[in-house]
Amino acid sequence: MKFVNRWDGRRWRLMGSGRTTITDLDVPDGGHAWVVGRDDRTRGVFFKRYHGGRWTSLPAPASLREISVRTAGEIWGWGPSAVMRWDGRAWHPVALPAVAVPAAAQPAYGPVCGRSGTPAAC
To answer: Which of 9, 51, 60, 73 is the most exposed, having the fewest neighbouring CB atoms within 10 Å of its CB?
Structure first.
């Protein structure tokens, strides 16, 4: 997404410069908006809050791609290899539980044999 527009009650207004790529936007209520994206010139990640008619830049980890806003002091973020939580001042990594993936069961049709079809070729 390249552009974000805001309805001011009379007309749509363009927000931002168009030199960014928005990866996620969350609007939990009418007075706040939170956006994550990438500056297309520097390739840096940004995290911004819209409140009171202006945008405020906040720190953003390089891995941040998407967000889910519960409150201004509880925002969950994630990226390709990380889950994190914003506490209103900083991002904190969230440790995820290890998940054991069971080994695949032996196939019901038995072993797969070589071209000769004999058990010795299996």
So the answer is: 9
